[in-house]
Amino acid sequence: MAKAAPRIQYAPVDDLFLDPTNPRLGRRVSSKSLKQDEILDVMKDWSPEELATSFIESGFWPQEALIVVSETLYRKTRLVVVEGNRRLAALKLLKSAIDGEPISAKWRDIAAASTLDANFFEDIPYILVKNRDEVSAYLGFRHVTGIKEWKPAEKAEYIAKLIEGEGLTYDQVRRKIGSKVPAVRQHYIAYRLLLQMDEQDEIDMDFVEVKFSVLYLSLRTQGVQTYLGIDIQSEPNSAKNPVSRKNIGKLVNYATWLFGNEKTRPLFTDSRFVDDFGKILESDEAVDYLERAESPRFDVAKRKSGAAAADVVGYVEAASDAIQLSLSDAHVFRKSLDLQKAVKRLAADSMQLISLFPSILKDVIEELNEDARSS
Protein backbone atom coordinates (compact mmCIF):
# COMPACT_ATOMS: atom_id res chain seq x y z
CA MET A 1 0.00 0.00 0.00
CA ALA A 2 1.43 3.38 -1.01
CA LYS A 3 2.21 5.90 1.70
CA ALA A 4 0.07 9.00 1.97
CA ALA A 5 1.59 12.15 0.55
CA PRO A 6 3.40 14.19 3.23
CA ARG A 7 1.51 17.15 4.60
CA ILE A 8 3.02 20.62 4.32
CA GLN A 9 3.06 22.60 7.56
CA TYR A 10 4.19 26.14 8.34
CA ALA A 11 6.37 27.63 11.07
CA PRO A 12 8.18 30.91 11.84
CA VAL A 13 11.75 30.92 10.57
CA ASP A 14 13.03 31.32 14.13
CA ASP A 15 11.44 28.00 15.08
CA LEU A 16 13.40 26.15 12.40
CA PHE A 17 16.98 25.10 13.17
CA LEU A 18 19.96 24.51 10.91
CA ASP A 19 21.39 21.00 11.13
CA PRO A 20 24.77 21.08 12.93
CA THR A 21 25.57 17.59 11.58
CA ASN A 22 24.97 18.51 7.91
CA PRO A 23 27.64 16.64 5.86
CA ARG A 24 28.25 19.78 3.79
CA LEU A 25 29.75 21.48 6.83
CA GLY A 26 32.66 19.06 6.66
CA ARG A 27 33.70 16.42 9.15
CA ARG A 28 35.96 18.83 11.08
CA VAL A 29 33.15 21.34 11.53
CA SER A 30 29.93 19.37 11.85
CA SER A 31 29.06 18.57 15.46
CA LYS A 32 25.89 18.16 17.48
CA SER A 33 27.07 21.00 19.71
CA LEU A 34 27.78 23.44 16.88
CA LYS A 35 25.84 26.66 17.52
CA GLN A 36 23.46 28.19 15.00
CA ASP A 37 25.51 31.35 14.50
CA GLU A 38 28.59 29.19 13.92
CA ILE A 39 26.73 27.26 11.24
CA LEU A 40 25.63 30.50 9.60
CA ASP A 41 29.21 31.73 9.65
CA VAL A 42 30.21 28.73 7.55
CA MET A 43 27.17 28.85 5.28
CA LYS A 44 27.51 32.53 4.44
CA ASP A 45 30.13 31.44 1.90
CA TRP A 46 27.64 29.17 0.10
CA SER A 47 26.13 32.08 -1.86
CA PRO A 48 22.87 32.27 0.15
CA GLU A 49 22.34 35.81 -1.13
CA GLU A 50 21.32 34.32 -4.49
CA LEU A 51 18.46 32.49 -2.78
CA ALA A 52 17.53 35.55 -0.74
CA THR A 53 17.16 37.61 -3.90
CA SER A 54 15.00 34.86 -5.36
CA PHE A 55 12.77 34.89 -2.26
CA ILE A 56 12.28 38.64 -2.60
CA GLU A 57 11.35 38.31 -6.26
CA SER A 58 9.29 35.12 -6.18
CA GLY A 59 8.52 34.22 -2.58
CA PHE A 60 9.07 30.81 -0.96
CA TRP A 61 7.00 28.23 -2.79
CA PRO A 62 5.45 25.24 -0.95
CA GLN A 63 7.06 22.82 -3.41
CA GLU A 64 10.40 23.94 -1.99
CA ALA A 65 9.29 23.03 1.54
CA LEU A 66 12.07 22.21 3.97
CA ILE A 67 12.30 18.65 5.24
CA VAL A 68 12.39 18.59 9.02
CA VAL A 69 12.79 16.15 11.93
CA SER A 70 11.76 16.76 15.51
CA GLU A 71 14.70 15.86 17.71
CA THR A 72 16.68 17.00 20.72
CA LEU A 73 19.08 19.82 19.97
CA TYR A 74 20.73 22.05 22.56
CA ARG A 75 18.83 20.10 25.27
CA LYS A 76 15.39 20.89 23.86
CA THR A 77 13.12 19.37 21.23
CA ARG A 78 13.58 21.37 18.03
CA LEU A 79 12.49 21.34 14.41
CA VAL A 80 15.80 20.54 12.71
CA VAL A 81 16.09 20.89 8.93
CA VAL A 82 17.69 17.86 7.29
CA GLU A 83 17.08 19.00 3.70
CA GLY A 84 17.07 22.66 2.71
CA ASN A 85 19.70 24.05 5.09
CA ARG A 86 21.02 26.50 2.49
CA ARG A 87 17.49 27.82 1.96
CA LEU A 88 17.00 28.19 5.71
CA ALA A 89 20.35 29.97 6.07
CA ALA A 90 19.31 32.41 3.33
CA LEU A 91 16.02 33.05 5.13
CA LYS A 92 17.72 33.67 8.47
CA LEU A 93 20.36 35.98 7.00
CA LEU A 94 17.70 37.87 5.04
CA LYS A 95 15.56 38.31 8.15
CA SER A 96 18.55 39.60 10.12
CA ALA A 97 19.33 42.06 7.34
CA ILE A 98 15.73 43.31 7.17
CA ASP A 99 15.70 43.60 10.98
CA GLY A 100 18.67 45.95 10.73
CA GLU A 101 21.49 43.49 11.42
CA PRO A 102 23.02 42.69 7.99
CA ILE A 103 26.26 40.70 8.01
CA SER A 104 27.67 42.76 5.14
CA ALA A 105 27.00 45.70 2.86
CA LYS A 106 25.74 43.26 0.22
CA TRP A 107 23.06 41.98 2.61
CA ARG A 108 22.16 45.56 3.56
CA ASP A 109 21.54 46.30 -0.12
CA ILE A 110 19.48 43.13 -0.53
CA ALA A 111 17.35 44.08 2.46
CA ALA A 112 16.88 47.60 1.13
CA ALA A 113 15.42 46.18 -2.08
CA SER A 114 13.03 43.88 -0.24
CA THR A 115 9.28 44.21 -0.73
CA LEU A 116 8.42 41.16 1.36
CA ASP A 117 5.29 41.15 3.48
CA ALA A 118 5.88 41.48 7.22
CA ASN A 119 4.46 37.99 7.76
CA PHE A 120 6.71 36.33 5.20
CA PHE A 121 9.08 34.92 7.83
CA GLU A 122 6.19 33.63 9.96
CA ASP A 123 4.96 31.03 7.45
CA ILE A 124 7.85 28.96 6.15
CA PRO A 125 6.64 25.68 4.58
CA TYR A 126 8.12 22.43 5.86
CA ILE A 127 7.43 18.71 5.86
CA LEU A 128 7.89 16.84 9.12
CA VAL A 129 9.26 13.29 8.87
CA LYS A 130 9.53 10.74 11.68
CA ASN A 131 13.30 10.51 11.75
CA ARG A 132 16.44 10.89 9.65
CA ASP A 133 16.30 7.28 8.48
CA GLU A 134 12.98 7.96 6.78
CA VAL A 135 14.51 10.63 4.59
CA SER A 136 18.03 9.23 4.15
CA ALA A 137 17.18 7.55 0.83
CA TYR A 138 15.85 10.82 -0.57
CA LEU A 139 18.90 12.75 0.61
CA GLY A 140 21.24 10.13 -0.82
CA PHE A 141 19.57 10.16 -4.22
CA ARG A 142 19.36 13.96 -4.33
CA HIS A 143 22.90 14.71 -3.20
CA VAL A 144 25.00 11.63 -3.97
CA THR A 145 23.65 10.62 -7.36
CA GLY A 146 20.98 13.22 -8.08
CA ILE A 147 20.47 16.75 -9.27
CA LYS A 148 22.20 18.63 -6.45
CA GLU A 149 25.32 16.60 -5.87
CA TRP A 150 27.48 17.12 -2.82
CA LYS A 151 31.23 17.28 -3.17
CA PRO A 152 33.06 13.90 -3.08
CA ALA A 153 34.06 14.27 0.60
CA GLU A 154 30.45 15.07 1.55
CA LYS A 155 29.17 12.07 -0.39
CA ALA A 156 31.72 9.80 1.27
CA GLU A 157 30.85 11.03 4.76
CA TYR A 158 27.15 10.52 4.10
CA ILE A 159 27.74 6.99 2.81
CA ALA A 160 29.87 6.27 5.89
CA LYS A 161 27.01 7.43 8.12
CA LEU A 162 24.60 5.07 6.37
CA ILE A 163 27.02 2.15 6.77
CA GLU A 164 28.18 2.83 10.32
CA GLY A 165 25.13 4.62 11.70
CA GLU A 166 22.41 2.49 10.15
CA GLY A 167 24.42 -0.71 9.75
CA LEU A 168 23.75 -0.94 6.01
CA THR A 169 25.69 -3.07 3.55
CA TYR A 170 27.14 -1.66 0.34
CA ASP A 171 24.25 -3.13 -1.60
CA GLN A 172 21.66 -1.67 0.77
CA VAL A 173 23.28 1.75 0.43
CA ARG A 174 23.27 1.30 -3.34
CA ARG A 175 19.55 0.65 -3.36
CA LYS A 176 18.90 3.48 -0.94
CA ILE A 177 20.69 6.20 -2.90
CA GLY A 178 20.46 4.85 -6.46
CA SER A 179 24.19 4.33 -6.96
CA LYS A 180 26.37 1.31 -7.81
CA VAL A 181 28.15 -0.98 -5.35
CA PRO A 182 31.72 -0.21 -6.59
CA ALA A 183 31.13 3.53 -6.23
CA VAL A 184 29.64 3.10 -2.75
CA ARG A 185 32.53 0.86 -1.69
CA GLN A 186 35.18 3.22 -3.07
CA HIS A 187 33.61 6.24 -1.35
CA TYR A 188 33.52 4.39 1.96
CA ILE A 189 37.10 3.11 1.74
CA ALA A 190 38.30 6.57 0.68
CA TYR A 191 36.59 8.10 3.72
CA ARG A 192 38.07 5.52 6.09
CA LEU A 193 41.49 6.12 4.52
CA LEU A 194 41.03 9.85 5.15
CA LEU A 195 40.34 9.17 8.84
CA GLN A 196 43.37 6.89 9.03
CA MET A 197 45.55 9.60 7.49
CA ASP A 198 44.24 12.07 10.07
CA GLU A 199 45.83 9.92 12.78
CA GLN A 200 49.34 10.45 11.35
CA ASP A 201 51.18 13.52 12.63
CA GLU A 202 53.40 13.55 9.55
CA ILE A 203 50.44 14.14 7.23
CA ASP A 204 49.14 17.69 6.82
CA MET A 205 45.38 17.18 6.53
CA ASP A 206 44.77 20.74 5.38
CA PHE A 207 46.44 19.77 2.11
CA VAL A 208 44.63 16.43 1.91
CA GLU A 209 41.02 17.37 2.61
CA VAL A 210 40.75 20.03 -0.09
CA LYS A 211 41.68 17.36 -2.65
CA PHE A 212 39.55 14.47 -1.44
CA SER A 213 38.39 13.87 -4.99
CA VAL A 214 42.00 13.12 -5.98
CA LEU A 215 42.27 10.64 -3.12
CA TYR A 216 39.04 8.99 -4.27
CA LEU A 217 40.20 8.78 -7.89
CA SER A 218 43.60 7.37 -6.95
CA LEU A 219 42.01 4.36 -5.25
CA ARG A 220 40.81 3.05 -8.59
CA THR A 221 44.42 2.51 -9.73
CA GLN A 222 46.09 -0.84 -9.19
CA GLY A 223 49.35 0.89 -8.28
CA VAL A 224 47.89 2.75 -5.30
CA GLN A 225 46.00 -0.33 -4.11
CA THR A 226 49.14 -2.49 -4.28
CA TYR A 227 51.54 0.07 -2.79
CA LEU A 228 49.29 0.73 0.21
CA GLY A 229 48.08 -2.86 0.46
CA ILE A 230 44.41 -1.83 0.18
CA ASP A 231 41.78 -4.42 -0.65
CA ILE A 232 39.36 -2.38 -2.72
CA GLN A 233 36.85 -5.24 -2.55
CA SER A 234 36.78 -5.37 1.26
CA GLU A 235 33.51 -5.32 3.19
CA PRO A 236 32.80 -2.53 5.72
CA ASN A 237 34.12 -4.42 8.76
CA SER A 238 37.44 -5.05 7.02
CA ALA A 239 37.64 -1.59 5.45
CA LYS A 240 37.67 0.46 8.66
CA ASN A 241 41.49 0.53 8.57
CA PRO A 242 42.29 0.19 4.86
CA VAL A 243 46.07 0.39 5.43
CA SER A 244 47.76 -2.07 7.80
CA ARG A 245 50.18 -0.93 10.51
CA LYS A 246 53.18 -2.20 8.56
CA ASN A 247 52.27 0.09 5.65
CA ILE A 248 51.76 3.32 7.62
CA GLY A 249 55.10 4.63 6.39
CA LYS A 250 53.92 4.08 2.82
CA LEU A 251 50.68 5.92 3.66
CA VAL A 252 52.74 8.94 4.74
CA ASN A 253 54.75 8.72 1.49
CA TYR A 254 51.56 8.46 -0.55
CA ALA A 255 50.06 11.55 1.13
CA THR A 256 53.24 13.57 0.65
CA TRP A 257 53.59 12.65 -3.02
CA LEU A 258 49.93 13.16 -3.84
CA PHE A 259 49.04 16.19 -1.69
CA GLY A 260 52.26 17.75 -0.45
CA ASN A 261 52.59 19.79 2.74
CA GLU A 262 54.00 23.13 3.91
CA LYS A 263 57.53 22.04 3.02
CA THR A 264 56.98 19.80 0.02
CA ARG A 265 55.07 20.33 -3.19
CA PRO A 266 52.93 17.46 -4.52
CA LEU A 267 54.29 15.50 -7.47
CA PHE A 268 51.52 16.96 -9.66
CA THR A 269 48.51 19.25 -9.34
CA ASP A 270 46.41 18.13 -12.31
CA SER A 271 44.01 15.31 -11.42
CA ARG A 272 44.32 14.00 -14.98
CA PHE A 273 47.71 12.58 -13.94
CA VAL A 274 46.22 10.29 -11.29
CA ASP A 275 46.33 7.26 -13.58
CA ASP A 276 49.98 7.95 -14.39
CA PHE A 277 50.65 8.17 -10.65
CA GLY A 278 49.11 4.72 -10.28
CA LYS A 279 51.39 3.39 -13.04
CA ILE A 280 54.41 4.89 -11.27
CA LEU A 281 53.54 3.02 -8.07
CA GLU A 282 53.42 -0.25 -10.04
CA SER A 283 57.12 0.16 -10.91
CA ASP A 284 59.73 -0.91 -8.33
CA GLU A 285 62.34 1.32 -10.00
CA ALA A 286 60.07 4.37 -9.94
CA VAL A 287 58.99 3.75 -6.32
CA ASP A 288 62.62 3.34 -5.27
CA TYR A 289 63.37 6.70 -6.89
CA LEU A 290 60.43 8.41 -5.13
CA GLU A 291 61.39 6.98 -1.75
CA ARG A 292 65.10 7.89 -1.89
CA ALA A 293 65.03 11.23 -3.74
CA GLU A 294 64.95 14.31 -1.52
CA SER A 295 62.83 16.23 -4.05
CA PRO A 296 61.46 13.66 -6.51
CA ARG A 297 60.08 14.83 -9.84
CA PHE A 298 56.96 13.46 -11.47
CA ASP A 299 58.43 13.40 -14.99
CA VAL A 300 61.49 11.46 -13.85
CA ALA A 301 59.37 8.93 -11.94
CA LYS A 302 57.11 8.56 -14.95
CA ARG A 303 60.03 7.81 -17.25
CA LYS A 304 61.43 5.26 -14.81
CA SER A 305 58.04 3.54 -14.63
CA GLY A 306 57.72 3.24 -18.39
CA ALA A 307 54.41 5.12 -18.34
CA ALA A 308 55.93 7.87 -20.47
CA ALA A 309 56.25 5.40 -23.37
CA ALA A 310 52.51 5.63 -23.98
CA ASP A 311 52.83 9.41 -24.34
CA VAL A 312 55.56 9.05 -26.94
CA VAL A 313 53.51 6.52 -28.90
CA GLY A 314 50.60 8.95 -28.81
CA TYR A 315 52.74 11.82 -30.09
CA VAL A 316 54.08 9.75 -33.01
CA GLU A 317 50.65 8.40 -33.93
CA ALA A 318 49.17 11.91 -33.86
CA ALA A 319 51.98 13.17 -36.09
CA SER A 320 51.40 10.31 -38.51
CA ASP A 321 47.66 11.01 -38.61
CA ALA A 322 48.36 14.69 -39.34
CA ILE A 323 50.74 13.81 -42.17
CA GLN A 324 48.14 11.50 -43.74
CA LEU A 325 45.63 14.34 -43.68
CA SER A 326 48.10 16.75 -45.31
CA LEU A 327 48.96 14.29 -48.12
CA SER A 328 45.51 14.64 -49.64
CA ASP A 329 46.09 18.31 -50.57
CA ALA A 330 49.84 18.91 -50.20
CA HIS A 331 50.49 18.49 -53.97
CA VAL A 332 48.08 21.34 -54.72
CA PHE A 333 50.11 23.78 -52.61
CA ARG A 334 53.61 22.40 -53.22
CA LYS A 335 54.83 25.81 -54.49
CA SER A 336 53.85 27.48 -51.22
CA LEU A 337 56.97 28.74 -49.43
CA ASP A 338 55.30 28.28 -46.07
CA LEU A 339 54.46 24.67 -46.87
CA GLN A 340 57.99 24.02 -48.12
CA LYS A 341 59.40 25.43 -44.89
CA ALA A 342 57.06 23.25 -42.83
CA VAL A 343 57.94 20.12 -44.85
CA LYS A 344 61.67 20.84 -44.41
CA ARG A 345 61.20 21.05 -40.66
CA LEU A 346 59.14 17.84 -40.69
CA ALA A 347 61.81 16.03 -42.70
CA ALA A 348 64.56 17.08 -40.30
CA ASP A 349 62.59 16.01 -37.26
CA SER A 350 61.53 12.75 -38.89
CA MET A 351 65.13 11.88 -39.83
CA GLN A 352 66.25 12.58 -36.29
CA LEU A 353 63.50 10.36 -34.90
CA ILE A 354 63.97 7.49 -37.30
CA SER A 355 67.73 7.51 -36.74
CA LEU A 356 66.96 6.14 -33.28
CA PHE A 357 65.60 3.00 -34.96
CA PRO A 358 68.25 1.76 -37.47
CA SER A 359 66.36 -1.42 -38.36
CA ILE A 360 63.22 0.57 -39.19
CA LEU A 361 65.27 3.02 -41.28
CA LYS A 362 66.75 0.09 -43.19
CA ASP A 363 63.29 -1.40 -43.85
CA VAL A 364 61.91 1.94 -45.05
CA ILE A 365 64.84 2.45 -47.44
CA GLU A 366 64.41 -1.04 -48.85
CA GLU A 367 60.67 -0.46 -49.35
CA LEU A 368 61.30 2.84 -51.13
CA ASN A 369 63.90 1.21 -53.40
CA GLU A 370 61.49 -1.63 -54.15
CA ASP A 371 58.77 0.87 -55.05
CA ALA A 372 61.20 2.73 -57.31
CA ARG A 373 62.20 -0.47 -59.13
CA SER A 374 58.55 -1.47 -59.57
CA SER A 375 57.65 1.90 -61.10
Structure description:
With 375 residues, the protein is of the alpha/beta class. The protein is built from 19 helices and five strands. Strands 1-5-3-4-2 form a five-stranded mixed sheet. A hairpin with a 2-residue loop joins β3 (66-73) and β4. α6 (152-165) crosses α8 (181-198).
Key structural traits:
375 residues; alpha/beta; single chain; five-stranded mixed sheet
Strand content: 5-15%
Shape: elongated
Largest sheet: 5 strands, mixed
Cα end-to-end separation: 84 Å
Written as H for each helix and E for each strand, in order along the chain, the element string is: EEHHEEHHEHHHHHHHHHHHHHHH
Overall structural class, as computed from helix and strand content, comes to alpha/beta
DSSP strand tally = 5
As a percent range, the share of helical residues equals: 55-70%
CA-based gyration radius: 30 Å
Strand line-up in the sheet with most strands: 1-5-3-4-2
- Tally of contiguous helical segments: 19
What's the arrangement of secondary structure elements?
Blueprint: E1 8-11, E2 16-17, H1 36-43, H2 48-58, E3 66-73, E4 76-83, H3 85-98, H4 105-112, E5 124-129, H5 132-145, H6 152-165, H7 170-177, H8 181-198, H9 205-209, H10 212-218, H11 222-228, H12 236-239, H13 248-259, H14 274-281, H15 284-292, H16 298-305, H17 308-330, H18 337-354, H19 358-374
Parallel strand pairs: 2-4, 3-5
Antiparallel strand pairs: 1-5, 3-4
Helix pairs in contact: 2-3, 3-4, 5-6, 5-7, 6-8, 7-8, 11-14, 14-16, 15-16
